Amino acid sequence: MRKIYLILFILILAVTSVYSQNKKIAKADEAFQAGEYYDAIDLYKDAYSMVKNKELKTEIVFKIAECYRLTNEPVKAELWFKKTIDRGYPDPVAVLYYAQTKQKNGKYEEAIEVFKKYRQLVPNDPRSNEGIRACDLALKWLDNPVGYQVTEMKFFNSRGNDFSPAYARDDYQVVYFTSSRDEATGNKTHGATGQNFADIFVSTRDRKGRWSTPE
């Protein structure tokens, strides 16, 4: 009788574990489909620790890599796509995305080699040749820089997303732009970016050519 109870107890634990695991994955998939990629990352990582199936674990790793790719975090995306490929993910698109993240990270020579691997896997996809050509051009441009110097606008830039600048006056001394920096109104974070919800900021240039801190 005790053996029967023990077996039943083990079965109940197994069923409960599978149910909890599937629930976490479903919740992560729901966040992913909704475009709430940063929320999905945490949910997928939480689900990964509970999953035993190798193929399902690999699928979760790919989804995490996708979240980082879609939120424009190429450094983290490159790391997770490498993990995906090392685990034997069957879809060759992981190799393509791995090459593209290397390209975004400025690793042009490494990216070319990965693009070539993708071309072997999917010969008819023009994205491999396009990627190789883009990397070749980038390498040439690095060897022959143009006569322009890019200067960081420290008064504008932040660790958040800064975008859509627009001059507010004809003399170009006032700039409005959108930013998710810490000073943005509200205390909630966006599920897709992991940052504050964006606000509009303004920066003004004085007579000495100095820009004021955005407000």
Q: In what range is the share of β-strand residues? A: 5-15%
Morphology call: flat
Q: Which residue ranges are poorly predicted, with pLDDT under 50 across at least 5 consecutive positions?
A: 5-19
Task: Specify the helix fraction band.
Answer: 40-55%
Q: Can you count the helices?
A: 7
- Biggest sheet strand order reads 1-2-3
Query: How far apart, in Å, are the first and last alpha carbons?
Result: 73 Å
What is the gyration radius calculated from CA atoms? Answer: 24 Å
Question: Describe the biggest sheet?
Answer: 3 strands, antiparallel
Mean pLDDT: 83
Tally of strands: 3
Q: What is the ordering of alpha helices and beta strands?
A: HHHHHHHEEE
- The structural class is mainly alpha
Structural features, described:
The protein has 215 residues and is mainly alpha-helical. The protein contains seven helices and three strands. Strands 1-2-3 form a three-stranded antiparallel beta sheet, with no helix packed on it. The protein is flat, with a radius of gyration of 24 Å. The chain starts with a helix and ends in an 11-residue tail after the last strand. The model is unreliable at 5-19 (pLDDT under 50).
